[in-house]
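Morning F.,

Quick status update on the modeling queue. The single chain you submitted on Monday has been processed. Sequence for confirmation:
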Amino acid sequence: MKIGMVLYPTFGGSGVVGTELGKALAKKGHQVHFITYSQPVRLGSFHENIFYHEVSVSNYPLFDYQPYETELASKLVDVVKYENLDLLHVHYAIPHASAAFMAQQILRTQGIEIPFITTLHGTDITLVGKDPSFEPVIRFCINTSNAVTTVSESLKQDTIKHFAIERPIHVIPNFIQIEETESDASVKDLRTKYARENQKLICHVSNFRPVKRIEDVILIFNEIQKTVDSKLILVGDGPDRHVAEKMSRELGLINKVIFFGKVRDTNHILEFSDLFLLPSETESFGLAALEAMAAGVPVISSNTGGIPEVNLHGFSGYLSDVGDVKSMAEYAIDLLSNDEKLSLFKQQAKKRAALFSLDLILPQYENLYHEVIKKNH
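Structure tokens below.
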């Protein structure tokens, strides 16, 4: 198959998932064309069967805001027409699905039929989609897509609840590339640079937006460190980083909190962590939790959105209500204070993550692609 992959090329979950999916499809012999305004951060160097088409964003004085959707649609028309694509797969409803629909209609006037699949990742439904000014467009884009997928059952139900959907929605969860871990010796050596032998390392990875509840991360750790000798590793950056820094100073934790900032490959940090905190207000899936579990790190999380579909309570970690700092801290202390139990949960976290292996998820996308292409011919 020749597939056009449209996504946001940033560190966000939808961009990461779309990029890794494209790379996996290319490895299986499919031809994948990434179409976006800059090279996806996870694309890396040259890959066989992968092509990149940059959408040039014009700078006309007439426009206060450049019409990216229109320029993207024009680029899609060009790539579909001259690369003979079989299918477009767009990640995130706005503006990608609307641009795909526009391109589809333009190509139809030229005798070319191109189906498109829309994958909804979360905030395009739970945040943007609730804005009355976007709702009619998102509803139209979903209903005119040749197929629609969501990354969790929770997000599917949210989509059905907020929009008048006239077509079936397929749930294809996010996935993890199960990789060989570093040797125990090298992980232990790296760990000693940040913690003493018997200290526990607690980790949080996010874009530090308010929805991630960074204040709760600090408050949970503050309770943990009163009982368990530990340090907190914060990976990422964003608008609430200053909140975490300010709270760490005010609570006297600044020597126990390590700010790594943005890290392209977080797996090396996760491998020497003992516990992962994810107290988010909402998560459509919880990809950060899955990445932690794949590295053998149990997760203490909120029980919102799609997280319970990933983090199994009492098996790969524990779930608490949003904002219940006390409960999350108690669960964390219970695990970190019992090395035998912590070791068991680490093994179980890996076992749970294996259910979301790319090898298991990729065929679901391939089957859907074949089904949509077949219906289109």
